[in-house]
Amino acid sequence: MERQAVGQELAPLLIELVDLALTAKQAHWNVSGMWFRQLHTQLDVLADDLRLWSDDVAERLTTIGVAADARVETVAARTPFASFPSGSIDSTKVASLIVERLEKVVENNQTRIAKLGVVDLVTQELVIGITGGLQKQEWMFAAEQPGRPA
Amino acid sequence: MERQAVGQELAPLLIELVDLALTAKQAHWNVSGMWFRQLHTQLDVLADDLRLWSDDVAERLTTIGVAADARVETVAARTPFASFPSGSIDSTKVASLIVERLEKVVENNQTRIAKLGVVDLVTQELVIGITGGLQKQEWMFAAEQPGRPA
Amino acid sequence: MERQAVGQELAPLLIELVDLALTAKQAHWNVSGMWFRQLHTQLDVLADDLRLWSDDVAERLTTIGVAADARVETVAARTPFASFPSGSIDSTKVASLIVERLEKVVENNQTRIAKLGVVDLVTQELVIGITGGLQKQEWMFAAEQPGRPA
Amino acid sequence: MERQAVGQELAPLLIELVDLALTAKQAHWNVSGMWFRQLHTQLDVLADDLRLWSDDVAERLTTIGVAADARVETVAARTPFASFPSGSIDSTKVASLIVERLEKVVENNQTRIAKLGVVDLVTQELVIGITGGLQKQEWMFAAEQPGRPA
Amino acid sequence: MERQAVGQELAPLLIELVDLALTAKQAHWNVSGMWFRQLHTQLDVLADDLRLWSDDVAERLTTIGVAADARVETVAARTPFASFPSGSIDSTKVASLIVERLEKVVENNQTRIAKLGVVDLVTQELVIGITGGLQKQEWMFAAEQPGRPA
Amino acid sequence: MERQAVGQELAPLLIELVDLALTAKQAHWNVSGMWFRQLHTQLDVLADDLRLWSDDVAERLTTIGVAADARVETVAARTPFASFPSGSIDSTKVASLIVERLEKVVENNQTRIAKLGVVDLVTQELVIGITGGLQKQEWMFAAEQPGRPA
Amino acid sequence: MERQAVGQELAPLLIELVDLALTAKQAHWNVSGMWFRQLHTQLDVLADDLRLWSDDVAERLTTIGVAADARVETVAARTPFASFPSGSIDSTKVASLIVERLEKVVENNQTRIAKLGVVDLVTQELVIGITGGLQKQEWMFAAEQPGRPA
Amino acid sequence: MERQAVGQELAPLLIELVDLALTAKQAHWNVSGMWFRQLHTQLDVLADDLRLWSDDVAERLTTIGVAADARVETVAARTPFASFPSGSIDSTKVASLIVERLEKVVENNQTRIAKLGVVDLVTQELVIGITGGLQKQEWMFAAEQPGRPA
Amino acid sequence: MERQAVGQELAPLLIELVDLALTAKQAHWNVSGMWFRQLHTQLDVLADDLRLWSDDVAERLTTIGVAADARVETVAARTPFASFPSGSIDSTKVASLIVERLEKVVENNQTRIAKLGVVDLVTQELVIGITGGLQKQEWMFAAEQPGRPA
Amino acid sequence: MERQAVGQELAPLLIELVDLALTAKQAHWNVSGMWFRQLHTQLDVLADDLRLWSDDVAERLTTIGVAADARVETVAARTPFASFPSGSIDSTKVASLIVERLEKVVENNQTRIAKLGVVDLVTQELVIGITGGLQKQEWMFAAEQPGRPA
Amino acid sequence: MERQAVGQELAPLLIELVDLALTAKQAHWNVSGMWFRQLHTQLDVLADDLRLWSDDVAERLTTIGVAADARVETVAARTPFASFPSGSIDSTKVASLIVERLEKVVENNQTRIAKLGVVDLVTQELVIGITGGLQKQEWMFAAEQPGRPA
Amino acid sequence: MERQAVGQELAPLLIELVDLALTAKQAHWNVSGMWFRQLHTQLDVLADDLRLWSDDVAERLTTIGVAADARVETVAARTPFASFPSGSIDSTKVASLIVERLEKVVENNQTRIAKLGVVDLVTQELVIGITGGLQKQEWMFAAEQPGRPA
Fold this sequence. Notes:
Twelve copies of one chain form a homododecamer. Chain A has helices at about 5-30, 35-65, 70-80, 95-120, 120-140, and strands at about 30, 90. Chain A is mainly α. The first copy, chain A, has a single domain (about 5-140), classed as Ferritin (Up-down Bundle), CATH 1.20.1260.10. Chains A and I meet through α4 and α5 of A and α2 and α5 of I. Chains A, B, C, D, E, F, G, H, I, J, K, L: GO terms for molecular function: ferric iron binding; oxidoreductase activity, acting on metal ions.
């Protein structure tokens, strides 16, 4: 196993997952409108998943001997995501904001999975599992986008 | 109830709790040394408490009509805490790093409790409850500081 | 107890319940639109109820000495229901598709209950219990039909 | 502790909570329309909270030596709430009907909390806790009002 | 199924169950004397049963298309029960007050069961089940009446 | 927070709670007579509450930096309670023995709550919560005193 | 281990425990009077204990190669207990009827324990454990006998 | 409800269920042979069902004002069942011994259900429910009889 | 990820799992003979596994944007399995009927796993996991085939 | 059984266990230093064990007809243990303080077990069981003594 | 207590229990034939019991100050059991292989119990308890031996 | 799938896991010193993991048709690990003894994963999962090695 090669894939994934967990909570608190309850609950489930996955990624980093770094200043500096809107968010607008972020991590993971297949199959399996979970979450928010063709 | 006055006390408390939760996780992953297991577990319990408290504070903010803001860039910009050390941390050094941070929130809360007593007793009770919890956590980490007089 | 008379009522009920359980799952997977989450969950609860009821009916058949038959080709051949639409279904259209199917089983059960009252009160009680459950499910989907007069 | 002064605050609160619990159940049974399931569930959670709080208030009354009275004729005679509409209620109209009632109890409690602060801090804490819970419920229904500015 | 005929049996039963649940709670709070604890607990179990049964009856009403009505003013106006005594009640006097009320509902249900047997067997079964439960509760309170011949 | 002032209120409360827990157990073991089972159970619930409260008070003492002291010789020396009767106790005599002890702690706590309001609101809230619990226990034993006016 | 010697001690114990379990249930159903609820519950706990103990004794018999016999005609023929009164039993008379039966088994077990100490310590330990349980049950019923000196 | 008519149906059913529960335990302890474990477990489940049903029947008797009687001498005198074989029973012979006994109760219940339909529908429903359960148990033992035609 | 290529592997797997779940239930109801209980239980566990796996496969299809289709007519038309025998099945004949069907899915999955390895590793991992589960089930039924060489 | 002889062994054991439970709590609250968390938890487990054992001993005393006495003044007067140090205790010093106390009870119990073997085997078994538990606790604290030869 | 004398009885018992646990697992994995499922489950329950008992024995050894030794080479060298057959084992042959091993430990324990009665009653009780458990397991396997006389 | 090739990878892994589970228990019983409790617990968690993994590996062997062999003489003969030290082990020395053993299995598994990737992806996934678990355990023990650079 090549430690640095593995660390280069996992470290940014950790940043993305921790930022998304904060974002899911932010939306959980500020969503408003007729679908409030549905989304308030769904976002909390998403946040729970993201926290579990970030824990798994961080502990895998430490396990392979690379220090995990998800301090707030690190996440703020390295996150690839644009700022999530502040204040109240209408319940019809939440889904697409979440979908585009989940999509980006899934996309990044495709490359990571390919690279990890060469250097560490144990880490690759971890990222495959997380990617499957992210895609399922993405489907369930995408299904709720207004104007989505049935 | 004066909404803005209440919001001015809760908003920074939310920032502090969210940052501390990230810090507790950071230490949970990177602690190392003979007391590893004791601290690895204790820091996870602390992170769980901090997450529950930040959820309560954020939902109280929304309840009184002030938008909660704990996005990563907001927390990074407004947190009162200096950077937590990166990389592996010796298990004999964790306690004091945590204690000084908990102490600061407790200190800030003393003022907040006083101010809230004038404007909103419901919010005051929430902050009193969190402060009691923070002080108990502070005691249990302080007890583990090396060289602490018995 | 007249075994054949009882079997003639239960055997088609088993077919209807097994087909409806497959239908509920089909809708659970393919529903889409703003009410996705609400219906995705509700359809799973319905499928669970239908599976429990079909188990009770099939075991009652075996208990009275008539072989239960819910093999896929039997269900496909004998089901009274028209084909459920394939592909994605808009969340505003699910309720009426489910209601009309539940209504049909309830209607059939009215006759079955009357006939069973003459030949086997134990089986009658089973069908009465299932009918009450089907009617409750029907109410909860009917309540969600768009354009329904309040 | 001045028993009568405390009783004068708690007795009407008990009336309000018991009436609201009956109202929440009434709406739970009669709500109808596209958001049926979301509100059917949410109203049941509200009813459970209200029943627990009314139990706490009634037992506090007995504890301080004032007989609790929540017999149906007492509640009907003393409730401050106008009649809840009979019959089926559209799911887009439930939220505001609930919000206005919760708001009234919260408002009444502000005065009660102030008065209790002078005569009995134990009872005051009970009413502060219930008020926090009522405000959280109010937020979650208010968030679902149609036409609510995000 | 004749909807109105069914509704005519269930609607007054709902009133009786909701009033009795309030009465059971009233007695639960105000009972006093040497058998306090035994009755305080037993009355709470009774209230729980009555609440579950009233929920079943109200949802059956909605299911068959008749609006349930258990608003406080409706219950107060239509309840067949005389006023329950206010204030503290000696623990030796509770049993007979409860027994006479349970007895009345059981008696009313005998007629209801007979009428429902003609119009809707599903509803009949529901009322039979509730009646069995009411009779069991009646036995357990009747057993505690002072001076009861062994 | 003035550490010594807080400690002066909590230290004697700890003594009272620990002594009462021993007393509740003593009565739990030695009660006898027709109401044995009711009181045997009720006293165990009381002992559990008292143990939890004494744990909270002792840990609050340590948290604020005052050593908790509930060693047997300390409790024996400082308890304000007269000796509980030795040997078997008739079940009609237990209630008043418990009530008078609970009453005394409640009375002492009134002063403590007032004093703590000036020096530490977190500790005050703890004592308010314990006092509410003690009063509820007092009510439930007082209700069982023979000859108690209904 | 001497199989027959062990069987001679266990077989009559099995008879006694099975008869007592039937007796406890008989009293559980027919008790009546002011202490009904207390005894109704207590007798059910006793029946559960007796059933567990009879299961242990019967399986020990089979384990050592002696066929257990607790068929109804065997128990009726060999039970050492006089007939339990038929019909309703006043709640003040239950305790002594139960105590005298428990006392007899405890007495018989003293001899059995002594004999088993010579032939099989495993079986002896089983009977010692059951005897401890019987004595505890005996105490708790004896405590409820009217006129019992405190 | 005609109390004596109901009692005449339930009293012998109670005898049958209590005797069968003792029989199921007798077989549970003494079964032996290759299918031991399967039957040892299955007979325990049967005994549990029979005990629950006998409790329901006995409490229904008391509820309607007829004293339940399942004392060992009553059961031994009135049971309709021939003696169950003593000693070890081969696992291939258990099923038919159990089936013939269950069959007899089911047969008796057919008449009872008919008679109860005239005098008390609540009791009839209880007996219908028990009969359904007995028939299911009968099927599962009958399925295990050697030489049973598939 | 090539959506159509993935869908072509998963769609037939869904058909096979849904048909097998119906088959497992069919056998669960109709098995008969000395090993009835063992197989009745084992087939239910198998049905539960198959239902969970079909849910995972169908939701993966929807996640990748291919509509899942497991309607009864689709399953009947596309299932690769010959008709399962109708009526009662001897318990010695069940194992081989199940084994040959499980074997076929495992065999098909070998090809699917290979193809999915090229187009989507997330879906491949899902199919690998299901295949491991199918093989374990296959072993446990195969172990029970009569005449199987030890 | 000779009641007084048994009481003479159990009464002082009750004193020792109650005092040790208070001591374990005292240490649980006041331990401090690097091994704080390990000992804080371990001492709570010890206190729970001691409370359960003291309950068993006290109820055995009552069962045999000797009044249990663990009032605070009795325990303070009769405890054989020297005063436990007041104030904060370093985590490296706790183990030996606990070990010497546990050792003493174990030593006393050796004599008690011998004496009880002559007068009451049921009580002897209780004390044997407690002694095994005390020795296991002693081992786990002894293992943590600094300077202990491995 | 004579430490070496106790150790001489427990050390070989530990070896026997650990070897038997490995054997139970070996049979659990390799059993095959018509009774597969029954034995596969039963052997796992046996392995769980043996692991718990070996843990108790090893911790008792450490408690009395004798180092437990159940390293693989020690167990292999000192086990009194002949090699368990390798490879697949027919389900009709498992029982006797297990019974003969259990019988041997039971036999050895008879001597151990006698010797321990002289030196340490706490350890004796532990071995008595384990022996009772081993005998019960032995019965349940012995009951399944083919050709066993009923 | 090439059965023999798969078996050649899994059989030695089974040996290693079973030996390590015995070693973890050996250390669990014999660890001693200031970190006793931390390691006593941690080693038990490790033993549980190892037992679950060895069960999975052995059942996979049987599933693919290769007899699992983890009899004590096989494990002793084929284990690659040097003898674990006998007797008491200081708590500062446990970590490195465990780490070096875990490291060896992880190293062996790297080769096994590579070989299995060619012959059986289902087995490969099982070994990848176990390897991830072993590495996580290795990290948590390695973190506790004295003198480990932070």
